[in-house]
């Protein structure tokens, strides 16, 4: 029997008169790459924002690793073990790659403002540990050679990898990636695919939004499809590919 990591039921999110999510339910198991696809405006990023605490759902149930995260704030969600990247890259542009990853460790650090001022031995030891972990993660995602480069000077592909390294610095159980392959060339996309498999094999469950349907079909263990804020299909890639509702959502009723 699958070991459930995340379960949401009956999620609704409204913006004024717009019903962005309607009765959405998902179950994600530990150790899988779970894909979320759908046409533009289907509600994919809205669901990501609900799962990571940026949006407060109006109704529903949200359980993660034994915790009730319904209507919780982002820092509570991160502390519980959900980390994310964004569709539009959000790095600290003037910080180095190493510093960006070190910032991601703050949720797991213990030293507060007083420790930062006094620079006591415990705080100094923790800072060394944080830096060592940041180096380890840059090596893990394949960009340790640019550790001292400012984030704004990195190539697009390296910036995407840096975002992933910073998210991994929070020690997530679930890594949620919002269109990580957007703007990448075929070589970069293939390398990203390998990295996501590596992350999953390392014990971190992956939740992925991506417009590259070919990539998703070849990478994900299971896929859910949203259309107009509703889940219209869920299953292994081959089942989803053949689902008439999915064909209609992407190609129109004449192809269903």
From TrEMBL:
Top-level taxon of origin: Bacteria
InterPro entries: AAA+_ATPase (IPR003593), ABC_AA/LPS_Transport (IPR051120), ABC_transporter-like_ATP-bd (IPR003439), BCA_ABC_TP_C (IPR032823), P-loop_NTPase (IPR027417)
Chain ranges of the ABC transporter domain: 6-253
Pfam families in UniProt: ABC_tran (PF00005), BCA_ABC_TP_C (PF12399)
GO biological process, one term: L-alanine transport
Keywords, in A-Z order: ATP-binding, Cell membrane, Membrane, Nucleotide-binding, Transport
SUPFAM superfamilies: P-loop containing nucleoside triphosphate hydrolases
Alphabetized PROSITE patterns for the sequence: ABC_TRANSPORTER_2
GO cellular component, one term: plasma membrane
Molecular function via GO: ATP binding; ATP hydrolysis activity; L-isoleucine transmembrane transporter activity; L-phenylalanine transmembrane transporter activity; L-valine transmembrane transporter activity
CDD domains reported in the protein's UniProt record: ABC_Mj1267_LivG_branched (cd03219)
Name of the protein: ABC transporter ATP-binding protein
